[in-house]
Amino acid sequence: MKKIIIAIDGFSSCGKSTMAKDLAKEIGYIYIDSGAMYRAVTLYCLENGLFNTDGSIQEEALRQQMRQIQISFQLNPETQRPMTFLNGKNVEERIRTMEVSSHVSPVAALDFVRKALVQQQQEMGKEKGIVMDGRDIGTAVFPNAELKIFVTASAEIRAQRRYEELKAKGQDASFEEILHNVEERDRIDQNRAVSPLRKADDAILLDNSHLTIAEQKQWLKEQFEKAA
Ligand code: C5P
């Protein structure tokens, strides 16, 4: 069977990563969470004082430091789940905090950040056999991907899922705060000048508001079998 590129885009917290990760595992493809890369750059900014007190980014400083930000992935040997590394340190848990979620979209709107990360993502997909999820995978990173999916669900349902996820991890967050964050990220992601979030013309739309994880998984597997 020929190897293909699978691009899964969509709104924040709509379960893209779960379905992408599960499919990759089942079909023996590499899974790349492109959002983790934007989150890792954001964590770097937070740790290195690159946010001003008003929340704006010290763009020039970040531009100069971009080359020293190294992001990589490794599989957790026990769980087989991917872990994100920033300059050699495992930051998988830290990049999922509300603090990073509420700072990431402005960082991801910077053209030089996108250029650097998109280049790395394209490099990762050179050999195909990859499932990548994000916001611009089908439109900008791999416009020729053989299978493109665009996932959506209502903001309330997405916020509820995220709330349950954070609560299960023992993190403190209110439903209202999460809903606000989800809506705010959608707004910034859709309205930015560079590669705004939008469905590629040839992407298949999936509204998973009322689907279980198992139903989604099955649906995606069928799309893969048709495309491969
Ligand atoms: O996918 P996740 O929600 O973890 O992504 C975090 C943020 O990174 C998004 O809200 C978006 O601003 C940005 N992002 C992006 N392009 C991608 C993936 C994520 O702009 N391909």
TrEMBL record:
One of its GO terms (molecular function) is dCMP kinase activity. Gene3D superfamilies: P-loop containing nucleotide triphosphate hydrolases (3.40.50.300). It catalyses: CMP + ATP = CDP + ADP; dCMP + ATP = dCDP + ADP. CDD domains: CMPK (cd02020). It is an enzyme of class 2 (transferase). It comes from the Bacteria. GO terms for biological process: nucleobase-containing small molecule interconversion; pyrimidine nucleotide metabolic process. Its main location: cytoplasm. It holds the Pfam family Cytidylate_kin. SUPFAM superfamilies: P-loop containing nucleoside triphosphate hydrolases. ATP binds at residues 10-18. Residues 6-215 form the Cytidylate kinase domain. It is found in: Cytoplasm. InterPro entries: Cytidylate_kin (IPR003136), Cytidylate_kinase_dom (IPR011994), P-loop_NTPase (IPR027417). GO terms for cellular component: cytosol. Its EC number is 2.7.4.25. Keywords: ATP-binding, Cytoplasm, Kinase, Nucleotide-binding, Transferase. Belongs to the cytidylate kinase family. Type 1 subfamily. This is Cytidylate kinase. It comes from Phocaeicola plebeius.
